[in-house]
Design a protein that fits this description.
By secondary structure, this protein is of the alpha+beta class. The protein contains 4 helices and 7 strands. Strands 1, 2, 3, 4, 5, 6 and 7 form a 7-stranded antiparallel sheet that branches. A hairpin with a 2-residue loop joins strand 1 and strand 2 (68-73). Helix 1 packs antiparallel against helix 2 (22-55) and helix 1 packs parallel to helix 4. The radius of gyration is 33 Å and the shape is rod-shaped.
């Protein structure tokens, strides 16, 4: 959607072209077109990134049901399920590790640590996540049994994907710029109305003077 300033520039460019300033008007329209094109490309990139994040989530998960592990769709995993994760698996949910054997997980998409060792137990620090698995990360070595805590959009990975897919709120700079554009648009409209009013008033007087002179000469 065009901003007020963009609309003003577009109208100015078109008027310049129509009134004979082809070069100046073309430059304005070209710059405006490039700006809108860049915005469109950036929005498309954000949408594609969200789609890549969504596709990177595991399609299948091993869940303990009726006392045995069975493979189900990731969408069927719910908090409280007991998961089995093996090397090469994409973690289907945020989970706490119950048992592990030489498990390492790649979390480059979520944290600054590309590979991290995972093990069960209580951690000493609040920000220590060595006993947790995150949806979307990859089990690189070993295997583990874990308890699903958060799934789908409620997971850390799901929240990131949902945020990318949603329209982003305007920044304070964007809001101020839009308000400034609206002020400029109102002032421009007011100036146009004033100019038209002046042209009508003085133009009408000129016609009255011309008609009066023409009648006096005729008489």
């Amino acid at each position: 959607m065009l901003e007020p300033l963009s609309l003003i520039l577009l109208v100015a460019g078109v008027i310049s072209i129509v009134t004979g300033d082809t070069i100046g008007g073309s430059i304005i329209v070209l710059i405006l077109t490039i700006s809108i094109g860049l915005d469109t490309v950036q929005e498309g990139h954000a949408v594609r990134t969200a789609e890549i994040l969504r596709r990177s989530v595991a399609l299948k998960a091993e869940v303990k049901r009726d006392g045995v592990f069975q493979e189900i769709e990731v969408e069927g995993v719910v908090p409280g399920d007991v998961l089995r994760v093996r090397a090469g698996d994409i973690i289907p949910a945020d989970a706490l590790i119950l048992q592990s054997t030489a498990l390492t997980a790649g979390e480059a998409a979520l944290t600054a640590n590309p590979t991290r060792a995972k093990h069960p137990g209580v951690t000493a620090e609040a920000d220590d996540t060595s006993n947790a698995l995150f949806r979307g990360s990859v089990a690189q070595t070993g295997e583990a049994i874990a308890l699903a805590v958060k799934t789908g959009p409620a997971s850390v990975f799901g929240a990131a994907a949902s945020a990318l897919a949603q329209a982003q709120a305007r920044t304070p700079f964007e809001r101020d710029l839009r308000e400034f554009g609206l002020v400029i648009a109102r002032l421009t409209l007011a100036l146009v109305l004033v100019v038209l009013a002046v042209r009508v008033v003085f133009g009408g007087r000129c016609w009255i003077r011309f008609f009066s002179r023409w009648r006096s000469r005729s008489d």
